[in-house]
Amino acid sequence: MSVQSAQEYYPHGFQNSSATLVEDGAAAAVATVSPGIDVKARFTDDELAVHLDKLRKQHPEFSILPHQPAHAVISQQMTQHIARINAETCLPGEENSFFVGDLGEIDNLHRNWKKHLPRVQPFYAVKCNPNPVVLTRLASMGVNFDCASKLEIETILGLGVAPERIIYANPCKMASFIRYASDKRVLKSTFDNVEELHKIKKFHPDSQLFLRIATDDSTAQCRLSTKYGADLENVCELVATCKELQLNLCGVSFHVGSGANDFSTLYKATRDARWVFDLVQNEFHMQPLTVLDVGGGFQLESFAEAAHVLNMALDEFFPADSSNNVSIIAEPGRYFVASAFTLGANVIAKRKVSPRESMIYINDGVYGNMNCILFDHQEPTPRTLHHAGAFHYFDDESTSATHSSSQQHKVSIWGPTCDGLDCITKEYYMKHDLVVGDWLFFQNLGAYTSSAATAFNGFDQQATIIFIDENGKVLK
């Protein structure tokens, strides 16, 4: 076969490669990736950066958040929960931290997804928040599921979800888990190495396989291509192995990382996927690929911009016309649940450092429901919920990251364990001089929080969750 290396023939700048771009008519960039295959792109990398910068200036609505949290009901439920707790007589654990989960917010975000990404079927990343109430709600809305382990697959199937609504999106799987997926007829599966293909051939030869390619996720907070994804220069070997083993290669997947601020990566990764689609059909003469998995990393704050760039890339490289029989799926997690959960935590101790500075200790922390600080690079924002007999949920100025005339009480906030790493914030400024028994709350803590909470040091962090529906009713 005359296929040459992607590094030599793919001059768009994937990873660290570079070459001269060829003009084609209306300034379209042409990348000759192998003999007979031309991937035409509207933008060179430099042109793309300029275009996206213009987009941000032309679309101030990108910064408008699409969510509609039920603040009145959330405040009411937090108030009622705290009012039931008698700090003088409560049993151990009754004053534990707790969540309010807003299912109406999840409904709203799903509608927003369909509005901005109508071609893309979401497969929710179960690891993000595997609460069964959340999973059931998403399933009822037609959302499918991205599972990475036997237990996650078992959980989703246990909800009555059909196996064809699951993608086993872990490129490196245990053999016993592959056999389990085969037994349960979970067919969709990702891979990025030859060794995985031989396992799949042995234990689940009917799999519908997605070749996961690496992306440039250097601007992401949580980078994934350092662990998963095949470089384009290795794609030919993987495709050839699929053909040799007579496996069903049906699509391409990628993930640009979580917390990215450069959405050119979505455009470039979609372009790279187009190259793989063309390679499979034109060079290896295999059946055309039928599914593109654009991965996850979507988050509320930047969703509108990310969706705009992704749609632009899909329209260019995978246009929705009768000749393009390609389905588009994605693996969002935090987008659906982050803003739907609010955490309440009790002040259990205080150490005065100076008249205007204190160390505050609360009953949740980085080993509990704020493990996202360590694992997910999040910075939860503390706000005063209850102080001096009054509730302050709607006081947006109860705390500040910087000193001001309104927020003069400097605090560091610590979790309950005896580990010095259990620090929520080293410096914050409060309007109120908090005391033991007061309550703080933290918004936007639905993603990668309770799913990784531990009982380290003997602190049970399986927080109570009060769920409210779209009508403000509490689920019993």
UniProtKB/TrEMBL annotation:
According to its UniProt entry, the protein's GO biological process terms are: putrescine biosynthetic process from arginine, via ornithine
Q: Which reaction does it catalyse?
A: L-ornithine + H(+) = putrescine + CO2
Q: In which pathway does it act?
A: Amine and polyamine biosynthesis; putrescine biosynthesis via L-ornithine pathway; putrescine from L-ornithine: step 1/1
Q: Which UniProt keywords apply?
A: Cytoplasm, Decarboxylase, Lyase, Polyamine biosynthesis, Pyridoxal phosphate
Location of N6-(pyridoxal phosphate)lysine modifications = K127
Task of the protein: Catalyzes the first and rate-limiting step of polyamine biosynthesis that converts ornithine into putrescine, which is the precursor for the polyamines, spermidine and spermine. Polyamines are essential for cell proliferation and are implicated in cellular processes, ranging from DNA replication to apoptosis.
Name of the protein in its database record:
Ornithine decarboxylase
Per the record, the similarity remark reads: Belongs to the Orn/Lys/Arg decarboxylase class-II family.
Q: Does the keyword Translocase apply?
A: no
Which InterPro entries does the record match to this protein?
Answer: Ala_racemase/Decarboxylase_C, De-COase2_N, De-COase2_pyr-phos_BS, Orn/DAP/Arg_de-COase, Orn_de-COase, PLP-binding_barrel
Spell out the catalytic residues. C418 (proton donor)
Q: Which cofactor does it need?
A: pyridoxal 5'-phosphate
Mind telling me which PANTHER family this protein's record contains?
ARGININE/DIAMINOPIMELATE/ORNITHINE DECARBOXYLASE, ORNITHINE DECARBOXYLASE 1-RELATED
Note one Pfam family from the annotation.
Answer: Orn_Arg_deC_N
Kindly give the Gene3D superfamilies that the UniProt entry links to this protein. Alanine racemase, Lyase, Ornithine Decarboxylase, Chain A, domain 1
> Which lineage ranks, top first, belong to the organism behind this chain?
Eukaryota, Fungi, Dikarya, Ascomycota, Saccharomycotina
Q: What is its EC number?
A: 4.1.1.17
Orn/DAP/Arg decarboxylase 2 N-terminal domain segment(s): 103-338
A cellular component annotation (GO) from this entry: cytoplasm
Where is the protein found, in the record's own terms?
Cytoplasm
What does the subunit comment say? Homodimer. Only the dimer is catalytically active, as the active sites are constructed of residues from both monomers.
The molecular function GO annotations come to: ornithine decarboxylase activity
EC primary class: lyase
Primary localization class, coarse? cytoplasm
SUPFAM superfamilies assigned to the protein according to its UniProt record, in alphabetical order: Alanine racemase C-terminal domain-like, PLP-binding barrel
Q: Which domain of life is it from?
A: Eukaryota
